[in-house]
Amino acid sequence: MTIYVTKNYDEMSKKGAEIIAEFLKVKPAANLGLATGGTPVGMYKELIEMNKKGEISFKEVSAYNLDEYYPIEKTNDQSYDYFMKDNLFNHVDININNTHIPNGMAANCEAEGKAYDELVRATGGVDIQVLGIGGNGHIGFNEPSDIFEPITHQVTLDERTIQDNARFFNSIDEVPTQAITMGIGTIMTAKSILLLASGSGKATILREMLLGKVDPRVPASILQFHKDVKVVLDEEAAAEL
Ligand code: GLP
C-alpha cells in the first residue's frame, strides 16, 4: 500500500487525477471502477480538464460504478446515475453505452447483483477502482457488519450514512434507506485501488482502516489485504496516522 499525503482537497484531487491519467496512458481501454460522494468530484473536474486539453481520452474506457440508491429512477437528480453524468460522463469523450451503474429500479436485487458481478467479470474485471470512504468505514455502500459481503447486493443504509448523505438532499427524510452496492469481494477483485479521503471528519476512520485490525466492522480495513492500493489523503484526513 502506498499512502500519499497532500496539502488540501485540491492537491488530493490533482494527485488522484494524475494517477488515473498515468493509468489511461498505459491502458487506454481500461475498465475504471468509479465512485460517487463529495470526495472524487474535484478529481473528476481535473480529469475533465485533462480530457478537454487532449491529454487523456475516455473513448475506449469502460466504467463500472460501485453503487446506486434503491429504489431510485435514473432520472432522479439524486441518483448516482445522474451524479456520474453530471460530474463526469457528460463532459468527457466516454461512450455512454460503456458506462455501467447498478440498476436502482431492479425488480430483483439478487439477480441484479449477480448480473452486475458477471458483467464486471466478463469484461476482464476492474483495472483501477476509485473509492471514497464513509465516516463509518464503508466502501461503496458496504456498511459495518459481521461479515465482508462477497458480491453485489442490496443493503440497508446505516443511520450514520443517512445522516452524512442528508447534506445532498432537501431533508433527511428524502435520503433513501436502501442501496445496491458492489460487495467487498467484488471490490477486492479490482487489479488496483485508488482511495481518496479529505478533511478532519475522516481522520479517525482512516487510522482504524490503515492501522487497526482487519475487521468487517470497518469495511475499508480489508484493503490492507489488497496487493495494489494507493491512498491519497489531504493533511487533515492524515492527521491521526
Ligand atoms: C457515499 C458513497 C461512497 C462514498 C462515501 C463517502 O455514501 N456510497 O461511495 O465513498 O459515501 O462520501 P463522501 O465522499 O461524500 O464523504
From TrEMBL:
Top enzyme category: hydrolase
InterPro entries: Glc/Gal-6P_isomerase, GlcN6P_deaminase-like, Glucosamine6P_isomerase, Glucosamine6P_isomerase_CS, NagB/RpiA_transferase-like
Hydrolase among keywords: yes
GO biological process, one term: N-acetylglucosamine catabolic process
Annotated PROSITE patterns: GLC_GALNAC_ISOMERASE (PS01161)
Entry keyword Chloroplast: no
Recorded catalytic activity of this chain's protein: alpha-D-glucosamine 6-phosphate + H2O = beta-D-fructose 6-phosphate + NH4(+)
Metabolic or biological pathway, per its Swiss-Prot or TrEMBL entry: Amino-sugar metabolism; N-acetylneuraminate degradation; D-fructose 6-phosphate from N-acetylneuraminate: step 5/5
Keywords for this protein: Carbohydrate metabolism, Hydrolase
EC numbers on record: 3.5.99.6
Family of the protein in this entry: Belongs to the glucosamine/galactosamine-6-phosphate isomerase family. NagB subfamily.
Its job: Catalyzes the reversible isomerization-deamination of glucosamine 6-phosphate (GlcN6P) to form fructose 6-phosphate (Fru6P) and ammonium ion.
Protein name from the UniProt record: Glucosamine-6-phosphate deaminase
Source organism per UniProt: Holtiella tumoricola
Lineage of origin: Bacteria, Bacillati, Bacillota, Clostridia, Lachnospirales
